[in-house]
From TrEMBL:
Keywords: Hydrolase, Metal-binding, Metalloprotease, Protease, Signal, Zinc. Its cofactor is Zn(2+). Residues 431-478 form the LysM domain. The lineage of its organism: Bacteria, Pseudomonadati, Pseudomonadota, Alphaproteobacteria, Sphingomonadales. GO terms for biological process: proteolysis involved in protein catabolic process. It holds the Pfam family LysM. This is Peptidase M48.
Length: 483
């Protein structure tokens, strides 16, 4: 979270309109490889960086093996497979053979076939040159139009200011890639299933991993009090719930393909789960960053999404984002600079009032502006805090006119934390255990490192239905506090 200099990316191919689209069997070209290499380091920075070690090596091995099934002549050598240190459930692909999955999505999987299915889906996007096709459409539409309406663009309308603020919230929510069309997503599902079959995996893995993703999204939405219609696998993937039955139908009856469940569980045991303390942690309604030594609390009814460059705060009553910018030691200048940046080149934006204050011992300043988007008015607030002579952080918040007060408790909650409090922050990790005689779903779920919904979380994590029970010798996953 809060890495200075991260920039939004339009992760699509750069082929000009009218350029021929290679067939799926055409090897990755030098031009495509150069395109991917250009975006790759920026993408890693935005999504927490690439992990290393045996778990990352395992993901890379499975990814390259499934890429070979695509028929691309140089697949094993040309594909770059990265395990991202990100706490969101997501997977991506960019031209040139770069495919990614987050560690959080891997923890939701229950066997190697499901890992191969997700990576095979992304290989399918690369092999079918979907990004290049969408880039041609993008030349006729802005990236924000392709991504569709999300909170800030809904509130602000189609304006330069709206685009600028949308860009910030897109970054905070990790919605940074061009969306594929529904037909392209279904084609990637089909290709992924074909690759599973060729590699000898259980073809039904595409449907089962989508089912787990849909169940996780539904649980997260209910716990956060939001609508479940937009999954976290959202920027590049439509609602997984709508694709489960289609994927299972295309896979057909069980074919005897392998799942490699035990191997998979052994290899992912101990994987970091949820937020990395180095990027800050969301603990219920509180965000705490032990390295930056700060914390704040989101308003009631709002939920947070953490990324390396920002923390977004989302709810029915508006949106906010905590981030940072270059600071010269003057808070008033800093606040004005953020308004100028929000306005962009086509719109002058300045606070209608600017005030100094102190929040929990921190020097602070805030400004507010009312913006007319043509249909309604919204209030925009920049609230900045000085943590050192050369370091400041700020919230950008938007809400319908007259309703920005919903964020006041959050603004007032920002505080510096002590070294002892920072040292007490402990991450969560995945622990694979073997079910013993007498163990039940209820008894094992009580070991989950959460204060609420323990059994529901346990069942979703292990793809267990509401009536499924455990048997001795079965291996299952827990989320526990790292020691």
């Amino acid at each position: 979270m809060l890495a200075l200099g991260a920039a939004p990316l339009a992760l699509a191919g750069c082929m000009g309109a009218g350029a021929p689209i290679p067939s799926a069997s055409t090897p990755i070209t030098q031009t495509e490889a150069q395109q991917g290499a250009q975006y790759h380091p920026q993408f890693l920075a935005q999504f927490g960086g690439a992990m290393s070690g045996p778990q990352a090596a395992y993901v890379e091995q499975v990814g390259k093996n499934i890429a070979v099934q695509s028929g691309l002549g140089n697949a094993r050598e040309s594909f770059t497979v990265s395990l991202l240190n990100s706490p969101v459930h997501n997977a991506f692909a960019v031209p040139g053979g770069y495919i990614y999955t987050t560690r959080q999505l891997v923890t939701l999987m229950n066997n190697e076939a499901e890992l191969a299915a997700v990576l095979g889906h992304e290989v399918g996007h690369v092999a079918a040159r979907h990004s290049q096709r969408r880039q041609q459409a993008a030349q006729r539409n802005s990236i924000f139009g392709l991504l569709g309406a999300i909170g800030s663009s809904i509130l602000l309308g189609d304006s330069g200011f709206g685009d600028m603020l949308s860009r910030g919230f897109l970054q905070g929510s990790q919605l940074l890639t061009l969306s594929f069309s529904r037909s392209q997503e279904l084609e990637a599902d089909d290709l992924g299933i074909q690759y599973l079959s060729r590699a000898g995996y259980d073809r039904r893995a595409m449907g089962t991993v989508l089912a787990s993703l849909a169940a996780q999204n539904s649980l997260d939405a209910r716990l956060q009090g939001r609508n479940a219609s937009v999954p976290e696998w959202a920027s590049t993937h439509p609602d997984p719930a709508s694709r489960v039955q289609g994927a299972l139908a295309k896979a057909g009856a069980a074919t005897g393909g392998v799942t490699n469940r035990d191997t998979f569980l052994t290899r992912i045991d101990g994987l970091l789960y949820g937020d990395d303390p180095k990027q800050g942690l969301i603990d219920g309604s509180r965000f705490i960053h032990p390295e930056l030594r700060l914390s704040f609390t989101a308003p009631q009814g709002f939920y947070m999404v953490n990324s390396p460059s920002a923390v977004s705060v989302n709810g029915q009553g508006g949106q906010a984002q905590l981030t940072l910018a270059a600071y010269n030691g003057n808070l008033e200048t800093y606040v004005r600079e953020q308004f100028t940046a929000l306005g962009g080149q086509n719109r002058s934006l300045a606070p209608q009032r600017l005030q100094r204050t102190t929040i929990n011992g921190l020097p602070a300043a805030y400004g507010e502006a009312r913006v007319n988007n043509g249909q309604s008015q919204v209030d925009v607030i920049v609230f900045a805090y000085e943590f050192a002579r050369d370091r400041a952080y700020h919230f950008i918040a938007i809400a319908p006119a007259g309703r920005a007060g919903v964020f006041n408790p959050m603004f007032q909650s920002m505080q510096r934390i002590s070294a002892n409090e920072a040292g007490a922050v402990v991450p969560k990790r995945l622990q694979v255990v073997t079910v013993a005689r007498g163990d039940t779903v209820s008894s094992l779920a009580r070991r989950m490192a959460y204060p609420n919904a323990q059994e529901e979380r346990f069942r979703v994590l292990n793809a267990l239905g509401s009536r499924d029970q455990l048997v001795p010798g079965q291996r299952v996953k827990l989320v526990v506090r790292a020691r």
